[in-house]
Structures are given as C-alpha cells and as structure tokens.
Amino acid sequence: MYKIPFYIGNFITWFVANKSRREHVRGHINMILFKPWIKRLIKVAYGERVRSLKLVRQRTLKRVVFVVNGKYYVKIFRSVSQQKLCDFTELMRVISTVISVEVPYVIVDKKLPMYVCEKNTGADFHSFDKNFILKHQKQIFTQMRKILAELHSIDVEKIPDNTRFINDMQGRHKREATTRNEKRVLAHFDMNPSNFLFDSDMNIVSIIDWDSIAIANNPDTDWNMFVNNWEIFASK
User: Fold this and answer.
1) Which residue, 198, 226, 213, 211, is CA-closest to 65?
2) 128 and 195 part of one domain
3) pTM for the full model?
C-alpha cells in the first residue's frame, strides 16, 4: 500500500512535458499522499500535530524526504525492509555512544518503511564566510581525524548487517580505493562539508546524513572523501 504514492506520482508526471514542472507536480502529489502517514508518525514519536510540511528531496521510486514543523526530518523509502531500518536504528545507537559529536536519533515507524529524526544542533557549513572557514582548516581537520578514529573504534563484527538497506536506498554499490590495509571499519560514506554542523568557533558539533553508513574495506575511505570534497570547496 505504501508504494502506491511513488507509482501514482510517477504515472501522473509522465504526462508533464517540462522537467522542472514535472518535479514540482510529483512533489505536490507526494506531499498530499504521504501527509496522513507523516501526521501519524509525528504524533506517535513526538506527540505533536503537523503544523508545516515541506518536501526537501525526492528520488524517483526510491525515497522522499520531508521537513516537518521546521525541526523534524522524515524519510520514506519504497523498497527498504522494516528489519533493515531497525538495523540502521541500532547502528545509529551504537555510533552515538562512541562519537563525541551529536548524531541523529532515529525513530523508525512500526508500520511503514520510514523514519523520523530531529534536526541536529549547529549551523550549516554554508552559513559561514568561506575565508572564515578556510582560516579554521587545521582545526577542522584535527577534529575530523578524532571523529573518524572514534568511528573506527567500533567492532564491525558486532554490528547489524545493513548491506541490503544501503543498496536499496542508495541504488548503487560503494566504490573504494584499493588498499593493503585489511582492517575493515565503519564508514559514513558521505563525508562532505555540508553534512557537518558547526558552532560559532567552527567546532564540529554534529554530523548528519548517515544513511550511507556501511562497512568499508579501506580505513581511509571517509578521510579521502572528506579531503577531496574539502579541496573542491576550497578551489571554488
């Protein structure tokens, strides 16, 4: 039943010629069809009613993301099993016990493949002046190494296998650089500056968007991704 809105939105927008208009129509349909389920989830999880609902991301036949009341993120998936979402929740619980910055606290719906989490503390990377950010590069890099060391301290042999969740949600397999180091670690797999939240002194206070979390065969995977994204930002 929950898959119907995905198909309805795509079917109707098939007849819309303009691409940007098509996305607008699909978003409006998703908003209408998913709202009853979102209202129920927010009521159960936080005891609140939905006062505002904004679509922030949609991927055809894969997932949609909403912001509710300006402070809750709701992600709805088409093909991810409830068990894998529960595995993801457990994984986030484990991560929160070892990492020294805030990570999202995820609540999975008991009926549909969707979860909700509150917005985390801190300001978005793009809220700061670029020169101000680059001035704190050494500080940020030092913090990142500490956070990754904490993440790598988790014994991957004792965590739930969420491979199917990752493949279903992302629709692609991870590509890693080759390495001689055989240590397997937990990796965020989306280490770009936009997923870090900072205080006014550019200290990292939160890391968000952990949906790509998976076991990496290369312990430098996250670091290499972070440095690459940082260099892209710095060169613009």
Assistant:
1) 211
2) yes
3) 0.82
